[in-house]
Amino acid sequence: xxxxxxxxxxxxxxxxxxxxxxxxxxxxxxxxxxxxxxxxxxxxxxxxxxxxxxxxxxxxxxxxxxxxxxxxxxxxxxxxxxxxxxxxxxxxxxxxxxxxxxxxxxxxxxxxxxxxxxxxxxxxxxxxxxxxxxxxxxxxxxxxxxxxxxxxxxxxxxxxxxxxxxxxxxxxxxxxxxxxxxxxxxxxxxxxxxxxxxxxxxxxxxxxxxxxxx
Length: 214
Prior knowledge:
- Helix content is 30%, strand content 36%.
- The protein is built from five helices and eleven strands, in the order βββαββαββαβαβββα.
- The strands form four sheets. It has a three-stranded antiparallel β-sheet. A three-stranded antiparallel β-sheet has the order 5-7-6.
C-alpha cells in the first residue's frame, strides 16, 4: 500500500489471511522539494529509494488518490433502490460538480440515513487527467496500481476493520503537512468526510513568521 503525501511517501507491506492480515514492513521517505525538476520528480526519487529498500515482487499494489484532487458531495434521494440511485447519479453530478461529467471519473458510497424513505450517498469525482497523472507517476517508477481509493475512505475502512466497540460515534482527524482529512462515523456507518486545506505546514510557517526565522 502506497501513500503519497505532501512531505513524505509511505510504503506498507502486508500479508493477508482468511480472517486478518499481518503487517510485514513499513517504510517512510521524505520528499525533498530541492531534488529533481519539480514536485513529480521529487516524488519519483522518494519512491525509488523506498523500492530500493523493499522487495515488493509478487505484491498487489494499492494506493490512494490525494483528497485534494477529488470533489466530494453528500446527496440525498427520496428513494433507496440502488439501481435507481445509479441511474440518477449522472444527473445529480451535472448539478453538483463544476466539471463536465465526460471529464470525470465518479464513484459513490452509501451513507447512513436517519430516514427509512430516503437514501444518502457520498459522491466522489475526480478529473480523468488527475488519475492519469497519478498512474503515470507510479508507472514511471515501475509500479502499476491494482486499486486506487480515497484517503478518507482508507481511514474509515481501517477504523471499521479494527473497531470492537458497537454503536460508537467517532471523528477521525488526519492532520498532514498541507491538508487535514475529517471523517465522521456513527455505529460503524460513514456519515461525512471532507478535506480541509491546511495542516502542520501552515502552523510551522506561522510560527516561523512570528519569530522571523526559516
